[in-house]
């Protein structure tokens, strides 16, 4: 992997590249996650894409919320 900018990492960036598949928890760059992506259109995530912790998922009337103990909540 070559980065277009060297050392230009923004601290506290809220939109990090997902490192793990949020459905199966495997590294996002490993294998194919087409099935996961299809399932994720219907289901909430199970793993944090940043740290691979199991998410605490709550189903709410409007959909769901998923909460990572490390990274906080993501909605929708
Ligand atoms: Zn996957
Ligand atoms: Zn996390």
UniProtKB/TrEMBL annotation:
Cofactor(s) essential for the protein: iron-sulfur cluster
InterPro entries xrefs: BsaP_C
Pfam families (UniProt xref): BsaP (PF26519)
Alphabetized UniProt keyword annotations: Biotin biosynthesis, Iron, Metal-binding
Residue ranges of domain Biotin synthase auxiliary protein C-terminal in the record: 55-73
General function of this protein: Required for the activity of the biotin synthase BioB.
Family to which the UniProt record says this protein belongs: Belongs to the BsaP family.
Record-given protein name: Biotin synthase auxiliary protein
Taxonomic source organism: Frankia nepalensis
């Amino acid at each position: 992997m070559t980065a277009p900018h060297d050392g230009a990492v923004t601290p506290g960036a809220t939109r990090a590249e997902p490192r793990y598949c949020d459905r199966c928890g495997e590294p996002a760059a490993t294998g194919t996650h087409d099935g996961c992506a299809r399932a994720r259109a219907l289901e909430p995530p199970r793993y944090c894409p940043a740290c691979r912790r199991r998410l605490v998922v709550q189903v709410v009337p409007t959909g769901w919320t998923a909460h990572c103990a490390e990274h906080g909540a993501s909605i929708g």
